[in-house]
Amino acid sequence: MDNSKQQLKSQVKKHIPKDWLCELRIAYRIVMEAVNDIKRTGIINLVIITTMAAILTLFGVLFRFTLSLSTFANDLGNVLEISVYLKQNISPTIVKDRITEIKHVKSVTLKPKEESWNSLKQELGLHDITNPLPDTLRVKVDKPENIGEVFNQIKPIAGVEDISYAKELAKKMQVLANVVNTTMVFVIIISAALTITIINNTIQLVIQSRKDEIEIMRLMGVSNWYIKTPLIMQGAFYGFVSSVIAVLPLNGVQGLLINVHKFFLIPNPLYAQKVVIITLLLIGTAFGAIGSFLSIKKHLQV
């Protein structure tokens, strides 16, 4: 029975001519309903926006620090390289070509034993001693986490005498990357939960204050989307305004991080500030709208 009613309703709608002026009026009325709901909330608006702004500020600051930490981890990881010491009377070119074919290898540089020996003699002041050093290949990988895999594949290659890399440093880089990623996910989940909970409770209060008005609209046959949309817009408004406020402290954080990058001679991540600002605005608005939507589903049977 319900299905037949829905089909009849959709068929009737198809044959109703569209009045764009009427639809514009409806859109205006929806916006005004959202504005009136915000006005009705009164001083609570300030509490909601301030609380959400504090949560989103924490998220924005941590997100910005995460981008810089990721840059530090990648930069330090790129410094890591595998030193491959070759046997005597082995062609370095052959071994180099084999290593270049290995997956995740970014570059292979040959350091001839004569060059290494000349540098060592100048540093230590050695003379008239036969060169005991082997030819060395410096192998760089695409990502720090792949260095162990590449190391194990180079080891059995014929002509390789010995092989080494800063294993402990590589492990620390991997741990740092994992901690950064896990922390960011944790902060996003906490921010989402708190923001949605605040909006949910706020919209619940609005629904309760407009209970009789909403009931009258339902009895008059007002469509569900007309009732729901102003409430969702109200939640999105709270999220957007809170995000804009949360952006303000980021300028100070940006200046601090730029100085840190300059001190360690590591480039500042490109467009980091813009990425954080856009993410904040999108996440704040989305969380606000989602919180309203969930509250409507829970407390408003339309």
Which helices and strands appear, and what pairs or packs with what?
Layout: H1 2-15, H2 20-41, H3 44-79, E1 82-86, H4 92-100, E2 105-111, H5 113-124, E3 136-141, H6 147-154, E4 160-164, H7 167-209, H8 211-219, H9 224-247, H10 250-263, H11 272-299
Antiparallel strand pairs: 1-3, 1-4, 2-3
Helix pairs in contact: 2-9, 3-7, 3-9, 3-10, 3-11, 7-9, 7-11, 9-11
The total count of strands amounts to 4
**Main pleated sheet:** 4 strands, antiparallel
Distance between the termini: 19 Å
Low-pLDDT stretches: none
DSSP helix fraction: over 70%
> Strand-and-helix sequence, N→C?
HHHEHEHEHEHHHHH
Helical stretch tally: 11
Structural class, please?
Answer: alpha+beta
What does this structure look like?
The chain is of the alpha+beta class and 302 residues long. The protein is built from eleven helices and four strands. The protein has helices at 2-15, 20-41, 44-79, 92-100, 113-124, 147-154, 167-209, 211-219, 224-247, 250-263, 272-299, and strands spanning 82-86, 105-111, 136-141, 160-164. Strands 2-3-1-4 form a four-stranded antiparallel β-sheet. Helix 2 (20-41) crosses helix 9 and helix 3 packs across helix 11.
What distinguishing features does this structure have?
302 residues; alpha+beta; 4-stranded antiparallel β-sheet; 4 strands; elongated
A few lines on this structure:
The chain is α+β, with helices and mostly antiparallel strands.
